[in-house]
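Interim report to the steering committee. The following record documents the input for Cyclic nucleotide-binding domain protein (359 residues).
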Amino acid sequence: MMQQIQFFDNLATFAGSSLQNHINLSVDFNYSSFQVKEAIQLSSSLAKCINLLKLELLLDNNKFGSQGASTIGNSIANCSKLQDLIISLKDNYVGNEGIASLCSSLVACNQLSNLKLELKSNLISAKGASELGIFIAKCTNLQQLNLDLFANKIGAEGAQSLGFSLKNCSKITKLDLNLYNNFIQSEGAKQLCSGLAQCNNLSTLRICLDNNKIGDQGISDLSLSLANCTNLSNLSLNAIKNQILTNGAIGLASGLSKCSNLTVLLLNLDINEIDDEGISELGFAFVKCIKLHSLRLYLLNNEISDKGILSLHSSLANCFNLSELSLFLSKNKVKQASSRELRNKFLKLKRIVVKAYDI
């Protein structure tokens, strides 16, 4: 049983604690105006926590750059017993050099089963993503991985590196991957998904590809990889503003229809160009997900008319295990006069509790 969490948000108090006795540690210095000096002080104490099994290290918005990240990585390398590691370095200007140093040190933590790296807005490009990929590929015991690269610039090449790393992570059951606004485009999506398809034990996947211009080809390639994840039961897919048209929706539907163990689905395709045919094909796919009991569907600002909404309704009526439904379909081409009638149709679906509804 994991011991009680020891929490610190003061450098001096942490430094004066029984460092070697810490097993389960949370250190919170978010928004603390740390420079390199403070990062070194923190690292000096962390390096002595040699018996840690679980570490949560929160250092968002401190601007200590690559040198600070390198120093922190060196200290964590001493904690070789770690099984559960959370590091949050959002908005720290870590850059490729800092990521490379951090990753080369973290390799020493070879017993990790749960890893969470929050690296939002850190000037990371393809080179930094490659270093991350090399490190992750060596974490062969990982069961849960959460990687947040929100608003970096890894591009297609960086996505390829991450895809290669996932091929070595066959034990992963839960994956959270945030690549919002990373310029990966369709080729990057394809390369990323080639690795994702090898995660045969994956049961929970949350992936954000918003604003990456992956297009029809990218979303179709993603759907093919999902079809290979036969144990997938919980899927959250965000692909907002990705230039996805009808063919992309059809490709996605094809993959989803093969996810026979899916029970919970969140699908966000806001601000694309999906029309009536596209939403109809998605509806048909939901019917084939015979275990699906919870669906949250976002299709705001597409090209869907009353006809497409009615087709979706007909399909959902045949999802016999569906019990929870949330629909967000406003800013399409639905006639204003039809909105209330359509809403009532969905509210009258048998067995289904409509949690939220917006046309």
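The two ends are 48 Å apart (CA to CA). The committee is asked to note this result when reviewing the revised timeline.
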